[in-house]
Specification:
Layout (H helix, E strand, L loop, with lengths): L8 H19 L25 H5 L3 H7 L8 E3 L3 H7 L3 E3 L6 E7 L2 E6 L6 E2 L2 E3 L7 E7 L5 E6 L1 E4 L3 E4 L17 E4 L1 H9 L2 E3 L2 E2 L2 E2 L5 E2 L3 H4 L3 H9 L13 H12 L21 H7 L1 H4 L16 H4 L10 H9 L22 H4 L2 E5 L2 E4 L8
Antiparallel strand pairs: 1-6, 2-3, 3-4, 4-5, 6-7, 7-8, 8-11, 9-10, 12-15, 13-14, 16-17
């Protein structure tokens, strides 16, 4: 435990009491069991360490080289890394309503949270998020049961190179006391859930994460499990790796939805396109879109052209394309105006940018916006 409190146990007790309320307020989502299909279990807790990307690069050098800069690769970073220190160290943030002043400091190569509210400080251990949208500091600790818990910081870094309130934690910090003004406590279950969506391998001993041997970021084996078997089969002249192209569109999207949320995890009342929080979960919006649900009705000469899932538009091995014309061409694969194709916009030429109307950016906070993937005609 890296908190300089004289008696940390009361704080942990507060975390248990407040966790359910804070988490529900932050996410506004109630999960329910899958009603669609079973998904393969996440392999991050396996006792066997998966192949390294260097091993995969022996045969897949071009993909692995491109993947070095992909957001999935960068979803978890040690707080002591030089890039993180550059983003956070020396920056301050003040909450509204005369709330506490937050400041991050570089102390001998480690990132620390300090505040004017009280003299204690908190070491940052990990940074969640690639930085494409935001990066959120997380501090870990061992609870009285010997298992890993965490504190999610109420302040995050944004690509504008400024600090701002962490999405979902916009509640005024004066609702809480002491350190809880600056961080949200997460119990062991939620801590493990958070880590498993940001890692390829998460070794632990009875719930205590072995931080030294984490494989941070979403790597090859996370989306293509069974790497060791694949390498052995290649040596024998066979290919055993499951291909995403062989999955149905729904299976493919729900694989992404293991971390990006799935529509069948939400109640009917929660599946409301007017709920701003759903914009964060692209896989939910996509599966609710008429384009997705009716894709089999579109007739084109090349069947693969009218397939719609996450990887139709986004290569998970590379950063997302920023050119709107690229996505318009994807739309025109189905809305191209030919007989049997989906309807096209009668008032605009096919070369026009349809994204602002059908997939607009929705601002979540002053610092953060997401593309709404629930494709629909809007009011």
């Amino acid at each position: 435990m890296r908190i300089s409190f004289a008696n940390p146990r009361p704080l942990i007790s507060v975390s248990i009491v407040m966790l359910a309320v804070l988490t529900c307020v932050a996410m506004l989502i109630v999960l329910r069991p899958s009603q669609t299909m079973p998904l393969p279990g996440r392999k991050v807790f396996s006792a066997n360490r998966p192949p390294t990307m260097d091993q995969c690069a022996i045969c897949h050098s071009d993909v692995c080289e491109a993947f070095e800069t992909a957001p999935h690769r960068l979803t978890l970073t040690r707080a002591a890394s030089p890039d993180v220190l550059e983003h956070f160290a020396g920056k301050s943030f003040s909450f509204e309503n005369d709330g506490p002043l937050v400041r991050y400091e570089n102390r001998n190569g480690e990132l620390w949270l300090v505040s004017t509210t009280f003299p204690d400080s908190l070491r940052v251990d990990w940074i969640f998020g690639s930085g494409q949208h935001a990066q959120t500091p997380v501090s870990v600790l061992k609870n009285p049961d010997g298992r890993t818990e965490s504190f999610q910081h109420r302040v995050s870094w944004y690509p504008t190179n400024t600090l701002g309130v962490t999405p979902g934690l916009e509640a005024s910090p004066d609702m809480h006391e002491g350190l809880l003004q600056l961080v949200q406590p997460e119990d062991h279950v939620i801590t493990m859930d958070c880590f498993e969506c940001h890692v390829t391998h998460l070794p632990h001993n009875d719930g205590l994460i072995n931080e030294a041997h984490i494989i941070a970021g979403v790597g090859c084996d996370r989306c293509h499990p069974g790497g060791h078997n694949h390498m052995a089969s290649v040596e024998d002249g066979a290919i055993s790796m499951e291909r995403w192209s062989e999955l149905s569109p729904l299976e493919s999207v729900n694989r992404c939805g293991e971390c990006h949320r799935r529509a069948d995890q939400l109640t009917e009342s929660e599946l409301n396109p007017d709920r701003p929080v759903l914009t964060r979960f692209a896989s939910v919006g996509l599966t609710m879109s008429a384009c997705f649900q009716q894709q089999s009705a579109v007739k084109v000469d090349q069947p693969d052209l009218n397939r719609l899932d996450c990887v139709t538009c986004h290569d998970p091995h590379r950063p997302a394309v920023k050119d709107s014309a690229f996505y318009v061409r994807k739309c025109n694969n189905c809305h191209g105006g030919d007989d049997g194709m989906a309807a096209e916009c009668a008032s605009q030429p096919m070369s026009s940018n349809c994204l602002p109307c059908y997939l607009p950016k929705q601002r979540m906070t002053d610092d953060l916006a997401f593309t709404d993937h629930w494709i629909r005609v809007r009011k």
